[in-house]
Every structure is written in structure tokens, then in C-alpha cells.
# Entry
Amino acid sequence: MPFSLDHVVFFGRTWDESMGMYALQAPDLGPLRILDCPGGPDGLVSEGLARGLDITAVDPQYDNSPDELERRGRREIHETVEAWIADPETGDNLERMRGYERLKIEALESFIDAFRSHPDRYVTGQLPSLPFEDDSFDLVLSGHLLFAYAARKHGGLMEKEAFDLEFHLASIRELLRVGREVRLFPTYAFFGPHRRHEFIEPVLEVVREEGHDADFLPSRWIQDEYTDFNDTLRIRKGTA
# Structure
């Protein structure tokens, strides 16, 4: 059976993966107020705090206890990787998939440590309505929700239409409300021929019509064989 998801899994990325995904250089982040949205069990905030960054994460799951989040994270990482392995289209490289699983556990463990010690940096909330004032952040990073969790027919991972184009537009407007610059990853379709995700062009059209600048930056992080269209979408808020 082809791989798909029926809900947003509690997955995270390590610091190095995040830097590559979003085409970032750590020395450039020092003076910035940064938001990870949705943060999930990322290692981004924990490592960022260790580096002295002003960084916060927001996610709907942060109203749960650290123990519950760790249990959920371990379970969903394992179950999702097993489903990938069982899919003949994605499970042909067992060593690669186990390495991927180890990185997800590494990110989870880093997250749990910081979630316990810096609870003020983990805010409960979700798109398309965030609990922050306008322009609270200089840089907003949003990975593996928008575009990724669109329906399969649009190039995403979901069997059902849970996050349609209107949700994407409302969410991106909200990210731009709270931040001066937004970076989104991925921008490719997960299924079918390698191509840009179906929602990218209408999103670009709307954000540019609304006075914002948008371009693509080459990502330094590669998942599986997604080397075509492997970019982060950068949107910089206009002054209009």
C-alpha cells in the first residue's frame, strides 16, 4: 500500500538538518528573534538556546507533559519509519531508513531536555492563529507542515484534504503577521514526477500581490532522492 499519513506526526529535525533545510548559517542568527512553527520535537530550539539565541517554538502539542511527548514521539517515529519500510516505493534502503530514525530520536531527546529546562520557550498554539503580537520575530521557520501535509493529490503526504490551499494562505499570512521574514520547507511534491508542489504558484501569486518579496534558496539538506526543487521558500514582509 502506498505510504500516506492520516494525521500530523510528532517528528522533529536536528539542528544541522534545520540549518541545511532553511539555508541558514549559524553566525547570522545571533541578533535575531526566531520562531520555530510548528516546533514539534525539533532540536532547533534546544541547540539554539545552547548557542545563546533568542528562539521560541510553538506547537499544539506543547500542552502535554514531557513524559507524554517523549512517549508519543518515540512511538510515532518508529511507526512512521516502519510504514515507510513496508512501502515498496520508499522502503528499498533499510540502512538509510534506520539512520533517518536515529536522527529523529536524537532530535526528540534534545527537545525533551530543553522542554523540561526551558518551558517558557515552548508555547502552545497552532496555525492559522498564533498567540503572538505583530512583528514579534525577525525570522520565522516553518518546516514539514505546510505543503508536506497537503493531500496526496496535490503532492503532499495526507490521504485526506485536511490542509487545503486556503489553510496554506491563511497560515502564511499569519506567519508574516508575527515575523518579518518567513522560510518554508519543503517546496517539492512528495509523489509522482519530481516537480514543484502544486500550491507553490498560487501562494507566490498571492504573497506578491499583497506586497511581499518571495524567492527560493537552495537547501543544503536532502531527504531521500528529492534533489530537484530542493529549495526553501523565503518570503520577506513588504512595507505596504
